[in-house]
Amino acid sequence: MWTYFANPHKFLRLSDWLAPAFYALGAACIAYGIWQGLWVAPKDEYQGGDIMRVMFVHVPAAWLAMASYSALAIASFVWFVWRHELADIAAKAIAPIGAVWTALCLATGSIWGKPTWGTWWQWDDARMMSVLFLFFLFLGYMALRAAMDTRQKAARAGAILAMVGAINIPLIKFSVDLFTSLHQDASVITADGPKMAAVYLTPLLVSAIGHSLLFGGLVMTSMRTEIRERRIARLRSRELEAF
Amino acid sequence: MSAAPILAAFRQSLGEAWAGGAGALLPLGFLGGASVLVPLGIGSDGETLKAVGPGIIWVALALASLVTLERIFQSDAEDGTLDLWLQAGAPVSAIAAAKTLAHWLSAGLPLALFSPLLALMFQAEASPALLVNAGLYALGSLAFFFWGGVGAALSATVRRGGLLISLIALPLYVPTAIFGALAMSGGPGSAGAPLFLAASTLFACAVAPYAMAAALRLAAD
User: Fold this and answer.
1) Which of A52, A138, A190, B112 could form a disulfide with B138 if both were Cys (CB 3.0 to 4.6 A apart)?
2) What H or E segment, with its residue span, contains residue A187?
3) What are the chain A neighbours of B182 within 8 Å (beta carbons)?
4) Which of A65, A56, A59 is CA-nearest to residue A31?
5) Does A172 contact B168 at a Cβ distance shorter than 8 Å?
């Protein structure tokens, strides 16, 4: 399977229709999630009244923050072991997009936190801290790539850092979990199944799927840009050689 | 494989740190200077200083590790020493670990041993607990140096890599800072925190050398 997807031409052909499909489906899912979340779902006074509707953006953003770093780590690992160029192109594309969703998670969380908990930010909250450090890991990754003078070096250094970050995440998570937590416990994925009413859960899941599709579409578009940039660079250097 | 290159790297790093006559005094001066800024910045109220003192020392230790690590691999990459290390027939990870350890011995351990004096300046009461804390600082700073070493190895070929090292390494410092501060807080959970601190340091010592080795091979290319 890897070798099939490792071919940039096949990827270009596949993403040619898959990326627009992801955008269309993602937009539909997000629109449905926002409509259900803003107008249909009843407000929950216990979660702060109308402000809880930010959940339909906040929870998908949190899910994507974690998923995108996992994707970055997996892509880095694949590149580091098998040296499939497409994996590095994917890693390079994922980092800034994942960082934006991580920032979105932090921002919506603060907006939700101010009226319900009375604070924009809580230093001893485990989840806020984990997401913040995830954000810093993304920033470090992008800064390191930008500082390297060749593409190959950027790929290698980035892959090492992403993998070191990935094996540290459980430890970071565990250490911040030792803080007493203000954040509510997990309520979608638990051992006894979802603890949430279907009127909230369905739009939340649809919204999460929509954000994931949008993320996938953006990553594919960014990868296509990168492939073409590399192609341009190659053609240019060939032109120079001809002189 | 032989142990000679590892010992040579260890001695070379120690020598570098002590060259110029200042040795451990220079990092000590940095730690002292950074700590003196704190009462000036947050006010000299005794109770406040007492509360933040242990944390300030953790932060100062983290900063000291970042400042001293900037050149640990960079000079080797510039003058070709790194290429020789890679051909020396010893595991690169062991050489990197030896160099990091030497740097910790000259810029981490002395600061930890100096910490009781700083703690007294932050209005802590003189007690044997300060010596226990010095041990915790020594343990935690070892993790700082190993993770910082990964950042230093990754940015060995980057000009002015100091800020980059900080950005890379600071998220990795989190567990150490949390366990360390928790161990000294005296609050709930502080009894087990030294064990967690030791575990996270051992984890750093086990994982970081391999990441450093991979990064150094990259720097030599």
Assistant:
1) B112
2) none
3) 178
4) A56
5) no
